[in-house]
Amino acid sequence: MSGLSSISQLLPMGILLFSWIFFMPLCSSFFGMHVALVSGECLSDGRVCLEDEMLLLLQLKSTLKFNADASNKLVSWNQSADCCSWGGVTWDATGHVVALDLSSEFISDGFYSSSSIFSLQYLQSLNLANNTFFSSEIPSGFDKLGNLTYLNLSKAGFSGQIPIEISRLTRLVTIDISSFNDLFGTPAPKLEQPNLRMLVQNLKELRELHLDGVDISAQGKEWCQALSSSVPNLRVLSLSRCFLSGPIDSSLVKLRSLSVVHLNYNNFTAPVPDFLANFSNLTSLSLSFCRLYGTFPENIFQVPALQILDLSNNQLLWGALPEFPQGGSLRTLVLSDTKFSGHMPDSIGKLEMLSWIELARCNFSGPIPSSIANLTRLLYLDLSSNGFTGSIPSFRSSKNLTHINLSRNYFTGQIISHHWEGFLNLLNLDLHQNLLHGDLPLSLFSHPSLQKIQLNQNQFSGQLNEFSVVSSFVLEVLDLSSNNLQGSIPLSVFDLRALRVLELSFNNVSGTLELSKFQELGNLTTLSLSHNKLSINVDSFNSSFSKSPHFTTLKLASCNLKRFPDLRNNSKFLGYLDLSQNQIQGEIPHWIWMIGNSFLVHLNLSHNLLVDLQEPFPNLPPYLFTLDLHSNLLRGRIPTPPQFSSYVDYSNNSFISSIPEDIGSYISYVIFFSLSKNNISGIIPESICNATNVQVLDLSDNALSGEIPSCLIENEALAVLNLRRNMFSGTISGNFPGNCILHTLDLNGNLLEGTIPESVANCKELEVLNLGNNRIDDKFPCWLKNMSSLRVLVLRANRFHGPIGCPNSNSTWPMLQIVDLAYNNFSGKLPAKGFLTWKAMMASEDEVQSKLNHIQFKILEFSELYYQDAVTVTSKGQEMELVKVLTLFTSIDFSSNKFEGQIPEEMGNFISLYVLNLSGNGFTGQIPSSMGQLRQLESLDLSRNHLSGKIPTELVSLTFLSVLDLSFNQLVGAIPSGNQFQTFSEASFQVNKGLCGQPLNVNCEEDTPPPTFDDRHSASRMEIKWEYIAPEIGFVTGLGIVIWPLVFCRRWRQCYYKRVDRILSRILHHQDQRASGGRRAHRIRRRRM
């Protein structure tokens, strides 16, 4: 662009200069003409500045409003100064102004249609870029500048309609009206009347069109055809952030000279067109943030002239890297935040010009090819957040690298220290969140240029040893957190005088350390020592020390602190303070609310021994977004939350007051609010309805009473509502909104009556519904069947009645893992076919482990804060609270109802079930043999039913079974033996008149031997070897009365052998039983570990 502009200016200037030197003297001699200038000033090369044009410029200066202190050009325009020194002005040979550059002059006003600038009729180039004409419209006098070939009004703050007069500048070669207004929330320039077609219809000479940030709002065919029909010689097309829509029309292929195409931040919502590969001159293609989808055409990679390719932030765009040819032109490759996948080809090493690779947050996998070491021009490499594996390769030839980011992958092995020698320009090395192990490469800390080292979230181990410091004022960021490092903090760290960030949290670093030691690092702003084995002494910390660091982040959680560090004098910038899980006693000092000059945003004092807030109690900092005081001994009234807080946790304390009447006005911005596990009484005030942004509200385990405000039910923002274990009464009033986003609704343990509102069905994302231990009188809520995300359903101990089958429902509960309907009046048969849809209970152990997680709700999209659901279940005869409900735990409790009929065989499909309780019902028939498939089962209770028949021998294969109760039924026959059954007490089988065998003291009849099961030799009963019995018989060979029946009486002989066989079986079986019990105990212990 600059080359063309220079040529276009130099040619006419040279011709004019030639004419001036030779033609004017001839006219004077031969024609007697007298030629005189209009009082101008001579330039050094013989040219002059015409006085009238000088006056026009001075007039322009007087009308423009600009910052004289920041100006470099306009301030030099002075009538007393030589015109050749006027900044930004180019004169031609005749003294006319042909180019005017007033870019970056901080001009804010004074550019109107009447401006004297439009009287400079010889003007060919006008540049007003990078000024501050905020909300000013582009004036309409441009049609007077008919000689303009270059017009640049970019980033100058102009807004409003682009005037039609610009379309009459038929000689324009370059036009740039790019704007950043849309990024700063101010009105952007727009093309409505004229639209894009009208703007360019006369600009046949146009080579470059830059309209980034201009509101064009045109469909694909409209803007593509407008360009292809009017500007056939266009080379540069830059229309980013122009509200264009797609798809990109094929008419654009007519612009065969296109070399630069930048269309970022438009809403094309279409595939990338193949025809882009037909632009043989294409050097730069940028289509980031365009909502492109489908598969990227591989042949675009093969365009020989292509130097820059940016497809980033198109999350639905798929593709793979091709095989690259030798000597390709590609210099910049940016594919971040796409679905590109596959391996990085070895041929990438052939791209000798490649200097920038950015493939972050894609789906690439496999090792990085060793050929990447051939990229000698490589400056920037970001492969973070992929699935790359293997060891980190050597970049031995890429000595110009400044930035390496390989974080969030699966790299293994150790870091080889000598691989990083000679990288004199390397500034940033980020290898965090991989699987790297071994000792830390201490030589990195002595690197002469490295400013930032991030090795956190790996598996580095060993001692933190001393290291040499080559330059004390280079390394600024050192993050070694979340590893397995041991030993004390090396004294070498305190020689890193430029250090701003030191992260050592979540290691095994030990020792006693004075906090005052860190005052030697005067530039330190972030210090994180949390969750180690350190004991931090804060007694000698002197906040008034002149060179003391000004912390912005201080994390000292679990550091055995006994008192608050004195941060009063050096905390004016402190925004993040974590002193949780220490042993700090007494009151919270009032000065802590004033640190950070009232801009403290995060304060965590949880898990201490704090008892009160020191008086006088000031207003909390308004921008304290996170306030966590849970798990202390705080008492008295509830502190008023900060005005703009988003996370407030006062749970697990001893607050005894009621909730303040005006609480709603203080939590109007709160997203998480918890008062659980206190002694709070009274009602929920109506002002809670003002908390329209709250997503998690936990008031559980208090003594609150009254009715639940209907506005909580109707709140459209609530994702978790936990009012468990209070004394709320009345009905569940209000309607759940149509756009309900509830994940958890827990009202367990109150005095609620009435029915369940059917509007709960609007909550399509509901995972936990816990209404147990109330007085709800209703039928089974079949309309819940539409909730495919439901994981936990607890209706325990209410007054529900009727059958639980839903014959007219085709919906499923594929995620359901905990069902508790115990202690109600449900009746009828169990819905066998309905059980076939409970897929989560049918998953194999491998499937469950691969998806292992907790039932939880992420509070903020970009935070690490989660709300953990807690559910009380009855297992092994005892109630237990699952504070973190794993997705692998499955439980069914239908006990103490009026169910009848047979237990469905389909229950044998629940192979991942841990707890099954069907006790206290009216089930009849036999125990299904399919229950032997429930290999994960730990607790089985079928007691107090009317079950009959024999106990299936298949139950003996349940090797994890630790609780079994089959009592109070009508079972008959011998109790199976082997494995777990040898350990159960008599109580597991009592009151079954037909049962016999161990552990009952009832011997079975001789003709009904107990069924046995031994997983070592289960194919047949014990075979008796006759040669072992023969000596026994020989003993009585002389006794004729015995010999004769044995030899000659078949009936006598069979009876004798049967008796001997039974004696030996019992002896040998008792030995196997003890061995089996030992194996079972070993399995149980191993499983619990």
Automatic annotation (TrEMBL):
The UniProt entry, under SUPFAM superfamilies, shows: L domain-like, RNI-like
Which parts of the sequence belong to the Leucine-rich repeat-containing N-terminal plant-type domain?
A: 51-90
Answer yes or no on keyword Transmembrane: yes
Q: Which SMART domains match?
A: LRR_TYP
User: What keywords sit in the KW lines?
Assistant: Cell membrane, Glycoprotein, Leucine-rich repeat, Membrane, Receptor, Repeat, Signal, Transmembrane, Transmembrane helix
Q: Where does the record place it?
A: Cell membrane
Q: Which residues cross the membrane?
A: 1028-1049
Classify the protein's membrane topology as the record does: Single-pass type I membrane protein
Q: What InterPro entries does this protein's entry cite?
A: Leu-rich_rpt, Leu-rich_rpt_typical-subtyp, LRR_dom_sf, LRR_N_plant-typ
Return the similarity comment: Belongs to the RLP family.
Write down the PANTHER family for this protein, in alphabetical order. RECEPTOR-LIKE PROTEIN KINASE, UNNAMED PRODUCT
Q: What is this protein called?
A: Leucine-rich repeat-containing N-terminal plant-type domain-containing protein
Q: What species is this protein from?
A: Vitis vinifera
